[in-house]
Amino acid sequence: MNTITMIAAAAQNNALGRNNDLLWHLPDDFKRFKKLTIGHKIIMGRKTFESFPKPLPKRTHIIITRDTAYTVPYDDCVVVHSLEDALQLVSDEDAFIIGGGEIYKQGEVFADVIELTRVHGTFEADTFFPEIDSDRWALIAEEHHPKDEKHHYAFTYLTYTRIGKPLKI
């Protein structure tokens, strides 16, 4: 069985980004994202994909867009036109939903795990992570990282599992 994990970094007000860009620079969070997602398929909206300078190495990118003419010139990228189409491509393997805001909203009902980096601050944003419903999600792990010379904000890694659905990791 496969595990669908939503992975994100969101501020205390659930802010994710603004103008298709991140609101903070957290090198340790980037390392964790890479460690967790490398070798897996990553599902994202078109705007999230276009926010990267190039595809992330050693991951298959599944890009969701309503634009039926949209193409990308990379072998490690697949274009689909709905989240359901994306999920069919990962029906027998672990995969990560990596954004943006609308894809997270749609993906929450399909996810088994949420790996959330909670950035300690509030930010002006145009994209937000959905509110985590404590009736549906159980916090099973947290690890705090204080502000330091490489990180302008303190943050906490939070791992949630869906309540009532057996964990398949």
UniProtKB/TrEMBL annotation:
Function recorded in the entry: Key enzyme in folate metabolism. Catalyzes an essential reaction for de novo glycine and purine synthesis, and for DNA precursor synthesis.
Substrates-to-products reaction catalysed: (6S)-5,6,7,8-tetrahydrofolate + NADP(+) = 7,8-dihydrofolate + NADPH + H(+)
Pathways involved: Cofactor biosynthesis; tetrahydrofolate biosynthesis; 5,6,7,8-tetrahydrofolate from 7,8-dihydrofolate: step 1/1
Signal peptide: none
Protein name: Dihydrofolate reductase
GO molecular function: dihydrofolate reductase activity
Organism: Maribacter chungangensis
InterPro entries the UniProt entry points to: DHFR, DHFR-like_dom_sf, DHFR_dom
